[in-house]
Amino acid sequence: MYDPKKPYNDLPLLPPAIQLSAQLFNKAIKANKALAELKGIADIIPNQSIILNILILREAKDSSEIENIFTTQDDLYRAFSAEKEDSNPAVKEVLNYKEALWRGYQLIREKKIITTNMLSQIQEVLIKNQAGIRSQPGTALKNARTGETIYTPPFGMGVIEDKLKNLEEYINIDDDMVDPLIKMAIAHYQFESIHPYYDGNGRTGRILNVLYLIQQGLLDLPILYLSSYLIKHNADYYSGLSALRDNKKWEEWILYMLDAVEDTSKDTIKTIRGIRHLLDETVEKVKTELPKIYSKELVEVLFYQPYCKIAHLVENKIVTRFAASKYLKLLEEIGVLRGEKMGREKLFINIRLYEFLIK
């Protein structure tokens, strides 16, 4: 009998014994369609560093917020542009998440499979320590309002390692009988239930989602992040996990995750289209009003992130440092950028991109 106050060492191994309804398969078709459209539309941005930077930073902020690590997008963009150690602990945590997510993307492209070692590397970058898999008791999830223990994950390094090995096998085995999005929902639940680390489990589990989609060929780039949906439907997320542990309600959980994929795919498509629209309009404006300095590469650098500075133009070999200062001032004069002092350096805000992302 499952008891939330005792380590769930009897957490069933995968695959689960479940029967899936027609409703669930229909929902999976819709979610796959939205995801396929997102995969295809990513190509409308000519330089994909643009959407990678913007979407990864947004996900880093949202995923960290789920763990009660709060920062503003403005503080995050400023810190990212400044490329130096930030004194704000929340900003540091969010930038660590961005680094961990990027590390995971590099690993999945290189290895093509998802392993326990890979997840541990991601968690290490995220948390900035090498504590690894839990070997001490005391990890339990509590109701923030009442303090009541709502879940106690498995305990014992051998138990945890066995369950992670089973999860790894489940993720990587080719199985044409189960839709990959359904497998993603199952794997996400299992990882969250194993809760293998002292800290960073939720964020590592959310990175696992997008890595699995890339491994399965459903995405080429890490551009689908479910955190914004989980924030909006936070209570349903945790009640879904609890219902699964208490009553094995797989269908409700999988439907929830498929809704998250469909909703987030459509939202991300709107974001990418919006960025492309702003990029095209900025190209025309600079080409018309500043034809002597215009280049496609110059405008693209302005969209890597909402804040730009002289070093960004130099590093991307657009112009020399002296010319970069002149170019940014000219772009400020025609209303594309707005300059702001940050410490001893000057940052330039891409006004319309910033307003689009902050809204």
Total of DSSP H or I helical runs spanning 4+ residues: 15
Oligomer: single chain
Judged by helices, strands and strand pairing, the structural class is mainly alpha
Task: Give the strand line-up of the largest sheet.
Answer: 3-5-4
The CATH superfamily of the largest domain bears the name Fido-like domain
Distance between the termini: 48 Å
What is the global morphology?
A: elongated
* Share of residues in helices: 55-70%
Judging by the overall fold, what is the CATH architecture of the largest domain? Orthogonal Bundle
Question: Can you walk me through this structure?
Answer:
This protein has 359 residues and is mainly alpha-helical. The chain folds into 2 domains: 22-268, Fic-like fold (Orthogonal Bundle), CATH 1.10.3290; 290-358, Arc Repressor Mutant, subunit A, CATH 1.10.10.10. Helices cover 62% and strands 5% of the residues. It is built from 15 helices and 5 strands. It has helices spanning 22-41, 49-66, 73-82, 89-111, 116-127, 157-172, 180-194, 201-215, 227-232, 234-247, 250-289, 296-301, 310-315, 321-333, 351-358; strands at residues 141-142, 149-151, 307-308, 337-342, 345-350. Strands 3-5-4 form a 3-stranded antiparallel β-sheet, sandwiched between helices. The longest helix is centred in the last third of the chain and has 40 residues, at 250-289. The protein starts with 21 loop residues before the first helix and ends with a helix.
